[in-house]
Amino acid sequence: VLVKASPEQYATNVKNSKIELFFDENVKLVNAFEKVVVSPPQIQMPEIKSSGKHVTVELFDSLKPATTYSIDFSDAIADNNEGNPYENFAYVFSTGDNVDTLAVSGTVIEAQNHEPVKGMVVGLHSLLDDTAFTTRPFERVSRTDSRGRFTIKGIAPGKYRVYALADANQNYLYDQKSEKIAFMDTYVSPF
Question: Among 34, 65, 78, 158, fewest CB within 10 Å belongs to which?
Fold first, then answer.
């Protein structure tokens, strides 16, 4: 169980890019590089470490003003003794005066066999140009789980396009022929 966070969970006007999480027992990270998703996406990979009852996340990109950040751990944090995951844990903070709380959820399935697709990056663009995913990184992101499900959290009200990407070079845009891309043909407007 999370017992303390610095800055506090859902804190506003955050200026510090180092997050410290304290748990009630010793924890470890399991495949953090694959499982943890920071949104908005970071160009420079964050450093995520665990030691005893403590997890530290350091963001190296400059924090954007008036922006809600979410760090979705999925099941990457587990207790050290038995390996039980702390499932569906997300840490959220804002650099502005309020925390955006809207979310978009769904499932990504393979068109050819209708099977769920694991590990796809799913992203949003408020730029509604249908080629935005080739020139600008996603604004908010999530990653599909083993059943193809995703939830993008911390969204501000607005109109968005949704894309799913097998992002080979992890830059959050479609720029290689080997990358797979999928999209919704309608906009989403969370409320």
Answer: 65
> pTM, whole model, 2 decimals?
0.90
In angstroms, the first-to-last Cα distance of the chain is: 30
Spatial distance between the Cα atoms of 36 and 32, rounded to a whole number of angstroms: 5
pLDDT greater than 90 at residue 180: yes
175 burial class (0-12, 13-18, 19+ CB within 10 angstroms)? middle
* DSSP for the chain, written as a single string: -EEEEESPTTBSS----EEEEEESS-EEESSHHHH-EEESPPSSPPEEEEETTEEEEE--SPPPTT-EEEEEEET-EEETTT--B-TTEEEEEESSSS---EEEEEE-B-TTT--B-TT-EEEEESS--TTGGGTS--SEEEE--TTSEEEEEEEPSS-BEEEEE--TTSSSS---TTS-EEE-SS-B---
pLDDT band at 170 (very low <50, low <70, confident <90, very high): confident
Contact 140, 161 (CB under 8 A): no
